[in-house]
Amino acid sequence: MQKRSIISTLLLALLLALGSTALLADSHGGADPRAGQVEQAINDAEAAREKAGSVDGEWRDTAKMIESARKALAAGEYDKAMKLAREAHQQGVLGYEQAMSQQELRIPSYLKY
Amino acid sequence: MTRIKSMIGTAAGLTVLLAGTLAQPVAAADGVSAVTEGKVLSEDRKKGNCLACHMMGDGAYPGNIAPPLVAMQSRYPNKEKLRAQIWDATANNPDSPMPPFGKHRIVSDEELDKIVEYVWTL
Amino acid sequence: MKKILLTCAALILTAGFGTATASTPEEDKAAWDRFYQQRFPNVPEEDYNNGVYTIDKVGRENWEAIEEFPPYEPFIDAGREMWETPFANGKGYRDCFPNGPAIAGNYPHWDKETGMVMTLPLAVNNCLEANGEKPLKYKKGPINNILSYIAFESRGQVVNVEIPGDDPRALEAYEEGKKFYFTRRGQLNFSCAHCHLQTVGMVLRTETLGPAKGHPTHFPVYRSKWGTVGTLHRRFTGCNKQVRAKPFKAQGKEYRNLEYFLTHKSNGLELNGPGARK
């Protein structure tokens, strides 16, 4: 009884997994065209992250997002990968802009000299 | 028996998960649910986390760094002005410590709309 | 006419420089002291080395109860053993620090020879490496034992960070630390000053924000959240992560210069490390 139920669970899970892979693959029309776009988006994000880092403006989670995007791309999850890459890209741009806006030291007015 | 139950549970769980990832969520939030969702978002420590600094509604353990969020409709002429303040408070006051929730994408545009709906009711 | 124009130009130039960053370390220190004095008129000057418990009365009671059985004690003992155990070459920490172990009051200081801010953890690792030993990690682990022991032995020494005038690079390092302190960072867009000057003493959820003055006197610190003792630069890392900025390297230039600037603002306070915090 126990063994059989485990086997059935596994089988069911396998079926579902296969089904979902098929669905995913189907919804993205086979293989590559989107993979290239996602890869480009990831490269853009990485460049933006490095640019922010070059002025000490990198944010905490940007590199993690890019890493997750790479993993999602490898797993064929293009939508997820694209979303992560775009968000990381935005973070890189914003972090750079933030650092540039802070180039000059401004002593706050509550400190009385 | 328990095994069968857990098996069904696992299968159901997987199906729900799959359905969740495949179906695009449709955000057809009417006013009431936007306010309710906005309250949840505004209290979420990883989203609005307004309570860290503001007293707000019945939220537990509010901070006192910033003014209590009360009488919002008399403090802001309209929702757009309120939204702009949450989007980037430093636009009005360069010394403001308030994080620019919209500009820095701490919350998404849709999430910000819902937070505005909730805060507007306070 | 030409003269008037020149005078005008000169005036504009001076004004321009005047509003920028021209305050000296002494002027900065005086401005900070004035600020805290006005914000907390009833806090005695010498009490600031108790950090947030200077101003958080309820927290202070809990803290004083913890201090009756200090959680950092085993780390001091382990550090004493490190101090007394010879290296493989037969030498020991004593050979690097002949005035030791009570030496924390000498750090951080400007090291003219290397042209950098010398911190105690850096000096410890320099000593180890000079004797063929493996350097210690700068945030967690055994470095906290030796630092706890040195801090404990140095209790009562008075912070006296100097920015020597005979090496312009020292002032440069100080200025970089100052710039760091007032720079907005991370997705949440906070500078150090937003929490520890501008809104100091206010409550973030349930946590009182502590004054910057007195922050570095009690490191390394046992934090209940960590369940162990950690270094000042580990705490800097945590602060940067909290504002969702990518942290800098422990004992890298950024954090060393920050330590230099920040510790200068505690000049005159007694060292009281290791400390215990929530």
TrEMBL record, chain C:
Q: Which GO terms describe its biological process?
A: sulfur oxidation
Which GO terms of the molecular function aspect are on file? Answer: electron transfer activity; heme binding; metal ion binding; oxidoreductase activity, acting on a sulfur group of donors, cytochrome as acceptor; transferase activity
Which residues are listed for substrate binding in this entry? 235
Cofactor binding, note field: Binds 2 heme groups per subunit. Binds 1 heme group per subunit.
The cofactor required is: heme
Positions bound to heme c 2: 192, 195-196, 239
Q: What class of enzyme is it?
A: transferase
> What is this enzyme's EC?
2.8.5.2
| Catalysed reaction equations from the record | L-cysteinyl-[SoxY protein] + thiosulfate + 2 Fe(III)-[cytochrome c] = S-sulfosulfanyl-L-cysteinyl-[SoxY protein] + 2 Fe(II)-[cytochrome c] + 2 H(+); S-sulfanyl-L-cysteinyl-[SoxY protein] + thiosulfate + 2 Fe(III)-[cytochrome c] = S-(2-sulfodisulfanyl)-L-cysteinyl-[SoxY protein] + 2 Fe(II)-[cytochrome c] + 2 H(+)
* Domain Cytochrome c stretches: 79-158, 176-270
Its Gene Ontology cellular component terms are: cytochrome complex; periplasmic space
- Quote the catalytic residue positions: 239 (cysteine persulfide intermediate)
Which residues are noted in the entry as heme c 1-binding? Answer: 96, 127
Record keywords: Electron transport, Heme, Iron, Metal-binding, Periplasm, Signal, Transferase, Transport
Name the predominant localization.
periplasm
Q: Which residues form the signal peptide?
A: 1-22
Hydrolase as UniProt keyword = no
Location(s) in or outside the cell: Periplasm
Its function, per the record, reads: C-type monoheme cytochrome, which is part of the SoxAX cytochrome complex involved in sulfur oxidation. The SoxAX complex catalyzes the formation of a heterodisulfide bond between the conserved cysteine residue on a sulfur carrier SoxYZ complex subunit SoxY and thiosulfate or other inorganic sulfur substrates. This leads to the intermediary formation of conspicuous sulfur globules inside of the cells.
Quaternary organization: Heterodimer of SoxA and SoxX.
Family under the similarity heading = Belongs to the SoxA family.
Q: What's the name of the protein?
A: SoxAX cytochrome complex subunit A
- Give the organism, scientific name: Candidatus Sedimenticola endophacoides
Corresponding gene?
Answer: soxA
